[in-house]
């Protein structure tokens, strides 16, 4: 779950609109929407205000940020590993189909 979605779920479960929460946090509703939809990363100041306003532990949001970054890094690493394996297989396939000099000399 992304941090934006978590923030949205907490807001909705507290029966708050984007407009009312944005006003409480001294930000625009548009900015809150961008955060909830994952188009903007929340600042530490924002997370602190949010956690105080909704009585949620700040540490949880920090942990979510770390998890999101780790997940993105893991996806990038898996993609790089996949590319390397594909290249190794292609190279191996090319060398397997090359004529073997030893076999040609024996003929």
Kindly summarize this structure in a few lines.
By secondary structure, the chain is an all-alpha fold. Helix content is 77%, strand content 0%. It has helices spanning 3-13, 18-25, 29-36, 44-53, 58-96, 101-106.
Nearest-angstrom radius of gyration? 26 Å
Note the beta-strand portion: under 5%
Could you state the CATH homologous superfamily? lambda repressor-like DNA-binding domains
Query: Roughly how much helix do the residues carry, as a percent range?
Result: over 70%
Could you give the order of the helices and strands?
A: HHHHHH
Overall average residue pLDDT: 82
CATH class: Mainly Alpha
Task: Tell me the number of strands.
Answer: 0
Query: How far apart are the termini?
Result: 65 Å
Give the count of helical stretches: 6
Low-confidence stretches: none
Give the CATH architecture: Orthogonal Bundle
Number of domains: 1
Structure classification? mainly alpha
Report the major sheet. none
Give the arrangement of secondary structure elements:
Elements: H1 3-13, H2 18-25, H3 29-36, H4 44-53, H5 58-96, H6 101-106
Structure, described:
With about 110 residues, this protein is mainly α. Helices cover about 75% and strands about 0% of the residues. Helix 2 (about 20-25) crosses helix 3.
């Amino acid at each position: 779950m992304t941090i934006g979605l978590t923030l949205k779920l907490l807001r909705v479960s507290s029966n708050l609109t984007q407009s009312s929460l944005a006003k409480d946090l001294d930000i625009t509703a548009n900015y809150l929407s961008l955060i909830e939809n994952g188009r903007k990363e929340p600042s530490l100041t924002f997370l602190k205000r949010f956690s105080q306003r909704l009585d949620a532990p700040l540490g949880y949001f920090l942990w979510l940020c770390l998890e999101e970054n780790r997940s993105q890094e893991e996806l990038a690493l898996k993609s790089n590993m996949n590319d390397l394996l594909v290249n190794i297989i292609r190279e191996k396939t090319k060398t397997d189909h090359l004529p073997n000099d030893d076999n040609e000399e024996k003929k």
